[in-house]
């Protein structure tokens, strides 16, 4: 009996968006209008690439970025929840699927020693170039019309489950914890026995409600949370069953 916990990162594990938080490193803690207005829907990764070039051009170094990123607050109750999962790893496999990047997530999880809780992290690959600039790439290519160009979380989840099956690992239930519009695609993939846990009042919660109103509800159970303590209470009930 093993459960798979799938976490989004921004506004789920941490209470902010890691990509917009990095702007605190910019001169006067803001981006020039031309750069800010250059974002095109579905092309966030390219936009962040330009932001990182701007930071590099302004002499922002890796250590300053790291210091800034490790000040991001965790969502209420999240430290308790991750501690609980860490103590019960024999029951839970735990992955992150995020549109952030490997550098940011690595810094934040290692600073709090929570990287051990997660079996795998699926996010956009990032690295510092020889000139000290942070660069970011698309996670993968996909054909899903609903998702941003760089990442379809449903595809990630499906491939992970297939790989686990090949290793002889199958899950009693999948619990998907997220907040954003790009979390809807993987939630639609969940089966009747699985659980979607959208953050209260955020885009995912609203989209699931809209689907229910238009009589095409998601197949899985839906449990809304506002603090990660709600998630922990629910997981405690699941493992008692």
Automatic annotation (TrEMBL):
A GO molecular function assigned to this protein is:
phosphatase activity
Query: What's a Pfam family in this record?
Result: Put_Phosphatase
Q: Which terms are listed as keywords in the entry?
A: Hydrolase, Magnesium, Metal-binding
The reply to whether Hydrolase figures as a keyword in the UniProt entry is: yes
The residues that hold substrate are 19, 99
Which residues does UniProt mark as catalytic?
A: 8, 10
Check the record and name the InterPro entries matching this protein.
HAD-like_sf, HAD_hydro_PyrdxlP_Pase-like, HAD_sf, Pase_PHOSPHO-typ
Superkingdom classification of source: Eukaryota
The reply on keyword Lipoprotein is no
- Cofactor(s) needed for function: Mg(2+)
Q: Which residues bind Mg(2+)?
A: 8, 10, 179
- Into which family does the record put it? Belongs to the HAD-like hydrolase superfamily. PHOSPHO family.
In its UniProt entry, what is this protein called? PHOP2 phosphatase
């Amino acid at each position: 009996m093993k459960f798979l916990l799938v976490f989004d990162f921004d506004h789920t594990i941490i209470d902010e968006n890691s990509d917009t938080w990095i702007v605190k490193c910019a001169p006067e803690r803001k981006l020039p209008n031309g750069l800010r207005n250059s974002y095109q829907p579905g092309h966030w990764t390219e936009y962040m690439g330009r932001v990182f070039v701007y930071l590099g051009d302004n002499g922002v170094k890796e250590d300053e970025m790291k210091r800034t990123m490790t000040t991001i607050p965790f969502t209420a109750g999240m430290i308790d929840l991750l501690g609980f999962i860490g103590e019960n790893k024999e029951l839970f496999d735990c992955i992150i699927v995020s549109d952030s990047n490997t550098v940011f997530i690595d810094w934040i999880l290692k600073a709090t020693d929570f990287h051990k809780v997660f079996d795998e992290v699926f996010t956009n690959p990032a690295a510092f170039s020889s000139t000290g600039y942070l660069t970011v790439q698309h996670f993968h290519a996909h054909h899903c019309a609903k998702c941003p160009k760089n990442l379809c979380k449903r595809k990630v989840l499906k491939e992970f489950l297939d790989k686990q099956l090949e290793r002889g690992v199958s899950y009693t239930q999948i619990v998907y914890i997220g907040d954003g519009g790009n979390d809807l695609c993987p939630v639609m993939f969940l089966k009747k026995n699985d659980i979607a846990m959208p953050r209260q009042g955020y885009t995912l919660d609203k989209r699931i409600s809209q689907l229910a109103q238009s009589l095409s509800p998601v197949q899985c159970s839906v449990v809304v949370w506002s603090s990660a303590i709600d998630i922990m209470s629910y997981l405690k009930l699941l493992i008692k069953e």
